[in-house]
User: Fold this.
Amino acid sequence: GGLNITYKILYNDAVAMTGGQPIDGPLSPRMVVDQVLAEGVKRVVVVSDDPEQFAAAPFPPGVAVRPRDELEAVQRELREESGVTVLLYVQTCAAEKRRRRKRGAYPDLPKRAFINELVCEGCGDCGVKSNCVSVLPLETEFGRKRLIDQSSCNKDYSCVKGFCPSFVTVEGGKLRKPSGAGAVAFPALPEPAHPSTQRPFNIMITGIGGTGVVTIGALLGMAAHLQGKGVSVLDMTGLAQKNGAVLCHVRIADRPEDIHATRIAAGDADAVIACDVLVAVSDEALAKMQLGITRAAVNASAVMPASFTGLADLQFPVDAMEREIIDAVGRENVAFVDATRLATSLLGDSIATNPFMLGYAYQKGMVPLSEEALMRAIELNGAAIDMNKKSFHWGRWAAAEIAKVESFARPREAPADSQRLSTSLEEVISRRVAYLTDYQNAAYARRYSALVERVRGAERAVARGTALSDAVARHYFKLLAIKDEYEVARLFTDGEFERRVAAVFEGDYQLHFHLAPPFWVKPDPLTGEIKKREYGPWMKSAFKLLARMKGLRGTALDLFGRSAERKLERRLLAEYEATIEHLLQRVTADNLPLAVEIAALPEQIRGYGHVKDFHVRAAKQREQELLARFDAPAVKATTLAGSEE
Assistant:
């Protein structure tokens, strides 16, 4: 009968261990192909992100090379083949690419992905498509959006495939250097009291993979060695921990023979340098802390875990995490600092966070080593010497004079208006009235404000507070301000997006747009999804023309309005208005929380095209459930005997 099976082999050019060690011995994709063919495999297909690399040295006859965009098609083809087949996927590990680029050993394309936050719907499809931890949340006045962390971006560009027109690629130019700090003369700070190392002094470093946690341990180890001390460094490493938890145990003593174990025992950590707060509150890390013994320096920046790529609404409860650490070591023994934000603002790269935390802990008296030894260790390490030294000094300064450091980190330009959060219901409404006036006209804005005012009046009649009014003000607006072709064009050409790009990039660059215009593109025959295409800088002129045509929206001349997506959006708006009218007729103090939840349901409707369709179905199902509960007869209170009171 034979066996029908497809083996998938990943050739990623490195061992999947922390540090990206090279493969032991010679091994090339051609050698893998030759070996499996010699063992009798019926068919081999090579899939790669760079098929052209094999043009000079082709594979044996019959071995096809396909681009990675065709991976799903190849898998389906091989699934139908009888016998044993092999899919060899050739792509250098993304983290390893980034590591090699820093050393100048891998091509560094002058091309970066960037997101127009106002066009972004916060659906998370870019995270699903890329599974990339450099796609971060951005909290704005109009909900959670996405941004690209340019410091950690591996330049894989898979995120651009997310079905959303908010992505552009910036080609040419380079990242703008931070201007706030400039060439600063660091002050002469008072030297902290160094802990004794007569008995082993135990430092636990917690952080996330790919950010240099192991490097901080190595720096402490080298500095201790330079001072003639005994030291052990135990890195909890294994399979590549990109954005996963990493802990490093560092023990420093006067003499090597005083250290009898490399792992810090439960409750024995004298200091915790928490480069990531989430890892610091893990069971393993908390077990090393003890009230009255442990002191902690904690990076309070919210760095999302890798699971955020598939969980668009994942929350990061920093306050609760801080309370856990305070409970573990005592309020007087912990210091919190927004290190990732400060280091990135001051040095232009989030990779500077961990040296910043080392300097911060040093100034707080948690490091039993001299600054001279630590500076020499940074020099011997040989990587980013100037940045690491500066980051360490900024950390020291922040521990001594945080207000002064904050003044240097403050950006010269105010953040985008959408990133300023409203502080009152009146502000929420007034900002959206102004937006809708720009979106269409004053009459359209009045349609919005009229319904919101009716809701405010009805809410005042049944209860104190503005929860229902706030929900309608935010989510009715969302259904009115749909991001159709005219609006996307306006948001790319109103000047705000260009200012944001110019704040991040400098030099001679051009914007390329990634779009799926209706009527012009066809669905993928395998997935049924529409694939985006890349359009050059000329698209900006087309956008300007399209933005001026917004007056056609909703008229007989609105060609875009005839698409299924636009018809769906008009239906959703009409249904929402009818639902709010229904709620206002029956709302009471008792069912007000249900009314608020129903009014906020458009928050769940996100994305474009098939992504939006998926969210609409889920939101409508939830709406049916909530309306059934809202419309159910109120249950009368009864006595224990069952008689009505």
